[in-house]
Amino acid sequence: MVYADCPICGDRRGKMGLYLNINTWRCWHCGESGGMLPLYGKVHGISNSEAYREICDALAINGFAEECAAPVYQTKEHDPKDVPSDKAPDEEIHRTLTALLSLLTLTPAHREHLRTVRGLTDNDIDGFGFKSTPPSRMCRTLTERLMKQGCRVQGVPGFYVNDYGKWTVKFYNRTAGIIIPLRGVDSLLHGLQIRLDHPIRDENDPPDKVGAKYLPLSSTGKNQGTSAGTPVHFIGDPHARVVYVTEGALKADIVHALTGRTFVATIGANNPNGLDELFSFLSRNGTEEIIEAEDMDKYRNTGVNRGAAAVYYLARKNGMTCRRLNWNPNYKGIDDWQLALRRKKEMHKEAQEMTFKEQYLSGLCTLDHIESCVERWHTLPEDGISLRDYLGLTEQEMDVYLQVDLTTTFERLLDSQRRCQHYRIYQLKLNGGKTVPFAFAGIKKLREAGYEQPPASLYQLVYDGTIFCPNEQSEQDILNQIFTRYCDILPEGFPGRNVAPSDVIELYGDNRRTYFYCDEDGFPGVKFSPMLAKPLNADE
Question: H or E element: which one contains 236?
Answer without folding.
Answer: none
